[in-house]
Specification:
The structure is a single chain. With 377 residues, the chain is mostly helical. The chain has helices at residues 3-18, 25-45, 49-60, 66-71, 105-118, 133-142, 151-161, 165-169, 178-188, 216-220, 261-268, 272-278, 317-323, 328-334, 359-368, and strands at residues 87-92, 95-100, 202-203, 206-207, 245-247, 250-254, 292-294, 308-310, 348-350. It has a domain at 3-188: Orthogonal Bundle (Lysozyme). The chain is built from 15 helices and nine strands. The longest helix is centred in the first third of the chain and has 21 residues, at 25-45. The chain is globular and about 60 Å long.
Length: 377
């Protein structure tokens, strides 16, 4: 194993570990409800319950995506030529696509397992230990399960944040783990809720459309592409559920009409003050339907392909920070700008800046991104 690989791996692990990790109430509820299904799949098909749960959480928006609600499809499994059952149509990659519809969620979990078991490209994963969730996560990405470059990191972050590996280790054991106790507590408190129905309303004579969030992970999924198209209805219920998506590794939702920081705090188990802080707004700020709202501390570094953003007319530094899940102060610092300095159309803003790294992290980053001269070409 060469030095560049080791340093690159070290950098990635530490970068993931440094990201803030909140436990979100909808995720805990989903785990309490569906962990037994994931554990059953592990017993019968040797797929880690941690991986199944993490994929289900991310790709179904904790079971609240339109795909999951309309068809019990928690993994965005398309019809393909072999499907003979019921189906639903969702807008996917510019066209209407056929997705499988299941009588119950358990059928979706079974179908997901069968896809991995019967696909030659994933065969090597079954040689890994069931507790090796990092190996499974990176193996799925390497095999082409998703085109998102951070797919494995998202799975790993969710597994570690919610102690999902405990469900793998203790199948068949009588000892209750911390995760199992937490899940049992959530279930007993009756926090598992079905998504509320929404209704269409008019505001100043105009129909207000609801905005459902589709994460970049789901948009880019190669084998399973669970899209959530915009609904024709809208909810004015501040406690209506939202689909959790991601920008980079940061969980977020799209605000709906009637949302407040207090109502979002109640829904996700966070304080209103924390959500305001994560989104760089003052106490008197009012949410705008359709805007991105982050549910955890944003990053100080953009890992996407483009390291620069070109300002468009009317855009602010906060707009840019929200678009890339970056802390506003960090964005100013990266660009040697004083907080509050306005930007102009056409101006290029750095989304990452190695010069602002410490000498240690700069060396690590350069090593991880420099071709290894010891490798034969």
């Amino acid at each position: 194993m060469n030095l560049r690989f080791l340093l690159g791996l070290f950098l990635t692990i530490n970068a993931v570990g440094l990201v803030a990790q909140n436990r979100l109430k909808p995720y805990d509820e989903y785990i309490a409800k569906y962990a037994p299904l994931a554990q059953d799949q592990q017993r019968r098909h040797k797929i880690p319950a941690s991986i199944t749960l993490a994929q289900g959480l991310i790709e179904s928006g904790a079971g609240k995506s339109e795909m999951a609600v309309a068809s019990n499809n928690h993994f965005g499994i398309k019809c393909h030529n072999t499907w003979k059952g019921e189906s639903v149509t969702f807008f996917d990659d510019g066209v209407n696509s056929c997705f499988r519809k299941y009588d119950k969620v358990a059928d979706s979990y079974e179908d997901h397992s069968m896809f991995l078991v019967n696909s030659a490209r994933y065969r090597g994963l079954f040689l890994l230990d069931l507790t090796d969730y990092t190996g499974w996560a990176r193996g799925l990405q390497k095999a082409g399960y998703a085109t998102d470059r951070q797919y494995a990191d998202k799975l790993i972050k969710v597994i570690e944040t919610y102690d999902l590996n405990d469900y793998v280790k203790n199948i068949g054991s009588k000892r209750e783990t911390r995760a199992e106790k937490r899940a049992e507590k959530v279930a007993k408190e009756g926090k598992i809720r079905k998504p509320r129905k929404t209704r269409t309303v008019k505001v100043n004579g105009l129909v207000v459309d609801s905005v459902d969030f589709t994460s970049d992970i789901i948009r880019n999924a190669k084998d399973y592409n669970a899209m959530q198209p915009t609904s024709s209805g809208s909810s004015i219920n501040p406690l209506s559920t939202h689909v959790i998506g991601y920008v980079g590794l940061i969980p977020c939702i799209k605000a709906k009409y009637g949302d407040t920081f207090a109502s979002l705090g109640d829904e996700f188990g966070l304080s209103a003050r924390s959500i305001r802080k994560y989104n760089d707004v003052e106490d008197d700020y009012k949410l705008v339907p359709g805007e991105t709202v982050y549910l955890d501390k944003k990053s100080t570094w953009w890992e996407g392909e483009n390291p620069l953003h070109t300002v468009v007319a009317g855009e602010t530094m906060r707009d840019i920070a929200q678009k890339y899940a970056l802390q506003l102060k960090a964005l100013y610092d990266m660009n040697d700008m004083k907080p509050g300095t306005p930007v102009k159309a056409g101006q290029r803003i750095k989304l990452r800046n190695p010069e602002k790294m410490s000498a240690f992290w700069r060396a690590m980053h350069q090593t991880a991104n420099t071709p290894d001269s010891t490798v034969a070409h």
